[in-house]
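Tokens in:
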């Protein structure tokens, strides 16, 4: 989805679902949107419950975190969303390669996992210079050449998924994280294959690494 939608997003900012090395994750709910925007968003995110992520700074030796200035936060989040976009494209390219091989050589003698990345999006809160507590309608932004809204904060939104979190392939080792016979090994082995295919198909320019998530969804993409 590449459509801009103005909506009301409720974020549980005082609690986290988890804290990674670079971002905090918060429960969030899509409440309302202009026109049919809410239906568009809930289709994209598979419902109104989403996860809102924000990057943070943590000085060496410190136990507390701080937030980036808004402009830097937005840039970090845009980069994260672009990584998810390109990772999704690489995985789709891999499946097209598999389909092409099977169409000429016949189906593989084993089941091929059907996997995708979580659906994601970039969100930010705007405030007008004369009314910092209210967001600016998109129609005003399009028509007002001299209006300079301020970005209060940004979020990377992801569909909320359920299931046991598993790391399948580490970013420093091109082998399955689990041993043969253990749960998830077949999926991890398939993901290692996708790395080989992506390396060849991009002429050595890009692969997806650090595969982690549930059996059907993956997130936290690193090239």
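Residues out:
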């Amino acid at each position: 989805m590449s459509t801009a939608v103005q909506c009301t997003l409720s974020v549980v900012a005082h609690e986290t679902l988890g804290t990674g090395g670079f971002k905090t994750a918060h429960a969030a709910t899509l409440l309302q949107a202009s026109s049919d925007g809410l239906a568009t968003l809930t289709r994209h995110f598979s419902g109104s419950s989403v996860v809102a992520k924000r990057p943070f700074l943590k000085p060496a030796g410190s136990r507390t975190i701080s937030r980036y200035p808004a402009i830097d936060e937005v840039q970090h989040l845009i980069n994260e969303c672009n990584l998810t976009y390109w990772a999704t494209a690489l995985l789709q390219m891999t499946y097209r390669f598999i389909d092409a091989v099977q169409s000429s050589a016949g189906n593989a003698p084993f089941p091929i996992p059907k996997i995708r990345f979580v659906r994601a999006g970039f969100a930010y809160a705007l405030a007008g210079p004369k009314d910092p507590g209210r967001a600016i309608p998109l129609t005003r932004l399009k028509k007002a050449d001299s209006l300079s809204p301020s970005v209060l904060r940004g979020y990377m939104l992801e569909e909320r998924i359920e299931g046991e979190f598993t790391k399948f392939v580490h970013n420093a080792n091109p082998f399955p994280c689990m041993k043969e016979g253990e749960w998830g090994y077949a999926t991890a082995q398939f993901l290692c294959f996708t790395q080989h295919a992506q390396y060849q198909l991009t002429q050595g320019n890009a692969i997806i690494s650090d595969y982690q998530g549930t059996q059907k969804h993956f997130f936290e993409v690193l090239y």
